[in-house]
Amino acid sequence: MERIRLGMVGGGKDAFIGGVHRIAARMDGQFDLVAGALSSTPERSVESGQALGLAADRCYGSYEAMAEAEAARPDGIQAVSIVTPNHMHAGPAITFLKRGIHVICDKPLAATMEQADELAAAIRAAKSLFILTHNYTGYPMVRQAREMVLAGDLGTLRVVQVEYPQDWLTEATETSGTNKQAEWRTDPARSGAGGSIGDIGTHAHNLACFVTGLQVESLAADLQSFVPGRRVDDNAHILLRFAGGARGMLWSSQVAPGNENALRLRVYGEKGGLEWAQEDPNYLWLTPFGEPKRLITRAGNGAGTGANSVSRTPGGHPEGYLEAFANLYSEAAEAIRVAGTGQKPDPGLLPGIDAGMAGMRFIDAALRSSRANAVWVTL
Amino acid sequence: MERIRLGMVGGGKDAFIGGVHRIAARMDGQFDLVAGALSSTPERSVESGQALGLAADRCYGSYEAMAEAEAARPDGIQAVSIVTPNHMHAGPAITFLKRGIHVICDKPLAATMEQADELAAAIRAAKSLFILTHNYTGYPMVRQAREMVLAGDLGTLRVVQVEYPQDWLTEATETSGTNKQAEWRTDPARSGAGGSIGDIGTHAHNLACFVTGLQVESLAADLQSFVPGRRVDDNAHILLRFAGGARGMLWSSQVAPGNENALRLRVYGEKGGLEWAQEDPNYLWLTPFGEPKRLITRAGNGAGTGANSVSRTPGGHPEGYLEAFANLYSEAAEAIRVAGTGQKPDPGLLPGIDAGMAGMRFIDAALRSSRANAVWVTL
Amino acid sequence: MERIRLGMVGGGKDAFIGGVHRIAARMDGQFDLVAGALSSTPERSVESGQALGLAADRCYGSYEAMAEAEAARPDGIQAVSIVTPNHMHAGPAITFLKRGIHVICDKPLAATMEQADELAAAIRAAKSLFILTHNYTGYPMVRQAREMVLAGDLGTLRVVQVEYPQDWLTEATETSGTNKQAEWRTDPARSGAGGSIGDIGTHAHNLACFVTGLQVESLAADLQSFVPGRRVDDNAHILLRFAGGARGMLWSSQVAPGNENALRLRVYGEKGGLEWAQEDPNYLWLTPFGEPKRLITRAGNGAGTGANSVSRTPGGHPEGYLEAFANLYSEAAEAIRVAGTGQKPDPGLLPGIDAGMAGMRFIDAALRSSRANAVWVTL
Amino acid sequence: MERIRLGMVGGGKDAFIGGVHRIAARMDGQFDLVAGALSSTPERSVESGQALGLAADRCYGSYEAMAEAEAARPDGIQAVSIVTPNHMHAGPAITFLKRGIHVICDKPLAATMEQADELAAAIRAAKSLFILTHNYTGYPMVRQAREMVLAGDLGTLRVVQVEYPQDWLTEATETSGTNKQAEWRTDPARSGAGGSIGDIGTHAHNLACFVTGLQVESLAADLQSFVPGRRVDDNAHILLRFAGGARGMLWSSQVAPGNENALRLRVYGEKGGLEWAQEDPNYLWLTPFGEPKRLITRAGNGAGTGANSVSRTPGGHPEGYLEAFANLYSEAAEAIRVAGTGQKPDPGLLPGIDAGMAGMRFIDAALRSSRANAVWVTL
User: Fold this and answer.
1) Deepest in the core among B253, B367, C64, C361, taking most CB within 10 A?
2) From the centroid of its chain, how far is CA D123?
């Protein structure tokens, strides 16, 4: 089976998520990275590209040049990964979609609602696929959780507790001059108006919706910027109301010392509960009401088809963040291959424009609610 | 040293907290239970009292009778524990205070704000002590946490996350006819208008304030009664704003399957964080920003004076709920002995009317906020 | 119900376990401590006794004097707790048994096999009860574990892993002049020839036998004294062979930094496994082969009669070391009351001379095996 | 940078570890799998190879054919991964080494000591590299642990506790006819005379030696075959004596229900301890004597150069088994590239023939000791 030819926009030096996408694309041998517009200057783009083994003539100085040239090549890229800061998602995505190239885009969808709407329109008009890497949905035990909820194991859902605390912005790192990640992620022009809510709150929101199958109907948000001078929120406390009557709380923070990437979801229904934590992702607690708690392990006892089909090793061999990310790439590969035959692929559980727009509405609602002193805002 | 002569109001058959108070009073050999108005009928009161080894003539049919008779005896009770449902706290407490008998009262202070105000007035007028058993403040590692926060180990506080989920009211247990605890705790007439917020939310609120030394200034609450027919809230989502600028979230629930008594507090400041969980109470996580997490153990490495002085055994010998409760009784005994000498005792960390009124204002504010769709209400 | 009149031998200043016995005796209101020979000199014995509220004339200068005087009083002690160093167990125990006074004795049974044999003979000849406080058997979840094993939930047992690491003797604390506990516990004349194996290895051995219902048939031991100058072992590695074919390993250590009192038992059979850890005693893992792991909690879902009958509070209210210890005292009280009626009490699960002798044989076999370079020695 | 051309022996259908090697080889983009003798019949080898995207003419029916043909091609493989059952390690390895092809071989080294000796001789004679995938040494926190021990953070080592329990052979799975893994791993002809000790005991032994920098000098082993009819041990209890005076225990088991892949190492020295568990590999406990326990996280606070250089993502993004495995492949790639320049590569921490022979001596000694009733056997 031929590997899918992949390009990349962004992901040069000082980037974090680009390297993750490359490993994810490589892990299951489904993609070959063959072209890139990796940095914002042609020189650095070539430098970054050659360090990755790209041919010099496929290291482009801009995504527009890459789209044009690759679309013209018989061996041009079939798909592109967009791993730039948020304000540079929509532009490239639209450009490649117009060229008939499938797009795999990092989240959130865009920096502004306007960009998001424009992108959504382009996706509707395109024949190519658009995949948004809400990567936590790729974890086997997240799949397991979703499967159990949808099977009714928890009964009608009542309470959703989701949180994503980090600590890396506890101090004013963005002014240190040495942390590019902190710089753009706290810059509204590049990141969007949301800080923690855009960067990680959207992950929490997406995870809660993915697992429960529910949509957030309205929210009341109290956002804070604890670090003096910070231009975006670095902590957010949000009350949630889901369609159907479930209620929830969402906490995102970048100023909670001791927390690295502590995304955690707890869901409770009439018949039982579930708990999953990203930092210990091979475990899922199932708590049927009135029975002992059960610990379900990845590819172990109690794990079902949905989880096992995205596992690579037997239970007890911990799989992690990169494997979860790679699961989205492998599912994308499958969809891309189907699309290549002219058929319309079933996206399955792959996040796309719907998840992306839901995330944008979440950010927007949280910002509006908080500005109005935490009034309820409908999404 | 003579033991303090103790009476008890409530705590007969089918009671839960009365037995806890008795063990707590006994553990350090500071009290002797010698009288009781244990049940609501004279016959059952005698029956319950004799099962506990009380003399028949000191098993009273009403608290009024007990107060009168005991006050008249030369060997009458010096203190009384009030362990009745919430609506029966204020009346007995006022009665005994007027008789010059020290009062140790279960929380919350009362079922209504009116009762609470009346009791507060009586306490101000009385010479006797009033102690409210916010028992979680008696845990050594809670003392440790407070000591560290007040010493500035965390820097200025920013974020407080506190929660108290349980699952015992996941179903409509109060209608089963076999669960007296569920009956009165979901009956507004006996429990007060707050359900989960009064029963356990107040514990969460109190713990957060005790450890941080901060007061909740305002809150926005979204309360739910998930179980059909339930007359009080069984789940509560609350946004908190503390005096001084810290923000927080509070979750209380009685419908979260898999949670027994999962009170948990996390506090984050500019310099570090703390985490403590009631079900694993001998551990305290300290997370100084930029350093490895540290696990401080009760009476172990890193534990300070405040924690060690309320520990009974070396580290690694788990102490629990009853020991924490007993710590309040022992501190009460010390205060009562000082009061017996005619001096005014230093209440130290013993919760009293201030904590009680703060709890009542918390419940009241949460109810008012929720009725107004989670608007901010000042406490 | 009258409280049982209790005396105590040992447990004065600088003692650890005496205070534990006193709390345990007090917790359920079944005993009153009324007499004591608490220290090795009359003056200090009186001083210690009065600090505990004993009448001066019942603070004795020797256990012999106490036995004689108390046996002669109409209100004399009915039972005595012996909480002295190991070499002072047998003498007092025999003396009190001869006087018809029930004996509750700390473990191990004695410092030497000769003392143990002599005590065993005295017990056989006596009408009074002899109870050995192998206190870890009092934990509800240990009872639960035993119940499940005996019910066959694990099938035929195969593997037993038990360990009891501590770290308090990592350095030569016994030479510091400030740690009486370290002094006598590393002194062969007072502690017996076994160091870690006598002090904590016996607990591990006892726990394994109690839960599995099996006896150790033979062992091969490799003992070490890592701290220069130490006269007894401070670390022990032992292979176990149980009657019936199960095999095991036992590790005891006092030089394992980071371990406080980390007694842990794991048992595996043909059908499943169990795991319990003393420092987190309210949890028991059950791992049926081929099914998800289950976490059974004290007084919670999955807990049975044996565990619940020794629980004082609902699930989620952690009970600990003192409660487990108190369970033995309460069961002792029950047996003493039955004996008081002239009937022969059923000791139930109370450890007595059999457990004590098994422990002594364990220590003796371990020492002999290790001296012979870890050859197999039959118990 | 050109990818290294890789071949594979073994790893066809029903294989487990072959797929792991392929992912590990792919993850960092250093290798291209271009040839294979994947199965024991030519037809199945072609079938397996083509499913992996190999060209038909590079899917060989035997490793001899592959070695000959690939050595003759200008674009022939530079390295080969040997992922066959143990008895098929030495033959292929020797063949490829003789052809000047680097060998990456799964552990243990061989099924018999004779094969091992023969292979060792071939390695000494060869110019090519020989790398043995003791994959657990690739975990960042294992590197961290080793670095700390060697830096003296624990002081002189005293006690090593290592264990590797699993449960997958609790029943006689090898007779089910449906589990090829169980079949060969319990077949002495293919696996070697050691069962659990060869399959996983060697991992435990290797990990202990890797982290401590110590060699096992002698051991006393008690092996069991609990499952009736099983031809190799499925549980092993081993006492260890290390050069320099440290002592240890090693437990391996395939019949411990509830354990998946629960390799765990604890090391204690005069100044502190360390604890690491394979199933939660991103955490390392450091327990300096007299200080609070510290939790060091992968790429987080407290992690050093050795760990961070084999990490791909920031802390809190769990990396697992495949990443650890891939670390060995990446280090192998680096060594292979150096060798390609004609220089002698520094193997760094890559396990090779020394670790392999140590493992074989460990298995051999354990078998001999156990047959002689657990006498001490020198390695």
Assistant:
1) B253
2) 18
CA angle D78-D84-D86, nearest 5°? 120
Q: Count interface pairs C-D at CB distance under 8 A.
A: 122
Q: Beta-carbon neighbour count of residue B72 at 10 Å?
A: 9
Average the pLDDT over B21-39 and give the result: 96
Does the beta-carbon distance from C301 to A291 stay under 8 Å?
Answer: yes
Report the neighbours of B using a cutoff of 3 or more CB pairs below 8 angstroms. Answer: A, C, D
Domain D139-315+359-378, architecture per CATH: 2-Layer Sandwich (3.30)
DSSP 8-state assignment for residue B42: H
Residue limits of CATH 3.30.360.10 in chain C: 139-315+359-378
Q: Which residues of B touch C1 (CB under 8 A)?
A: 53
- Whether the CB-CB separation of B190 and B15 falls below 8 Å is answered with no
* CA angle, residues C119, C18, C365, in degrees to nearest 5: 40
Give the CATH H-level superfamily of domain B139-313+359-378.
Dihydrodipicolinate Reductase; domain 2 (3.30.360.10)
> What is the dihedral angle through the alpha carbons of C151, C152, C157, C160, rounded to the nearest 10 degrees?
-40
State whether residue B339 is helix, strand or coil: helix
Whether residue A303 contacts residue A140, with contact meaning beta carbons closer than 8 Å, is answered with yes
Q: Which residues contact A185 (CB under 8 A, 6 or more apart)?
A: A85, A174, A191, A195, A199
- Mind telling me how many Å the CA of B293 is from chain C's nearest CA? 14
According to CATH, where is 3.40.50.720 located in chain A? 4-128
CATH top class, domain A138-313+359-378: alpha beta
- Residue A129 tokens, joined: 């696929």
Check the CA dihedral A151-A152-A153-A156 and report its sign. Answer: positive
The sheet with strand B4-9 has its strands ordered as: B31-37, B4-9, B79-82, B102-105, B130-132
Residue with tokens 């516990």: C185
Of A28, A279, A312, the CB nearest to D318: A279
CA D74 to chain centre: 31
Which residues belong to CATH 3.30.360.10 in chain B? 139-313+359-378
Measured in whole angstroms, how far is the alpha carbon of residue C54 from the centre of its chain? Answer: 26
pLDDT of C41 strictly over 90: no
Task: Measure CA D105 to chain center.
Answer: 9
Contact call for D257 and C271, based on CB within 8 A? yes
pLDDT given at position D79: 98
Rounded CA separation D199/D185 (Å): 7
Instruction: Tell me the sheet residues that pair with D240.
Output: D219, D248
C neighbour chains, 3+ CB pairs within 8 Å: A, B, D
How does pLDDT run across A71-120, given as a tens digit for each residue? 999 999 999 999 999 999 999 999 999 999 999 999 999 999 999 999 99
Q: Tell me the mean pLDDT in the region D8-26.
A: 93
**What class is the A4-128 domain?**
alpha beta
Mean pLDDT score, C145-156:
98
What does the pLDDT read at residue B244? Answer: 96
Residue range B22-40: mean pLDDT, rounded: 95
Of B250, B284, B269, residue with least CA distance to B159: B269
Judged by average pLDDT, the poorest of A147-156, B7-16, C107-116, D4-13 is: B7-16
C294 and A296 within 8 Å at the Cβ level: the answer is no
Give A-chain residues touching B235 at CB under 8 angstroms. Answer: 158-159, 247
Closest CA to B235 of B176, B170, B183: B170
Phi-psi region of A137 (alpha: psi -120 to 50; beta: other; left: phi over 0): alpha
Q: How many CB pairs under 8 A join B and C?
A: 110
What value of ipTM does the predicted structure carry?
Answer: 0.97
Burial class (CB in 10 A: 0-12, 13-18, 19+), B128: buried
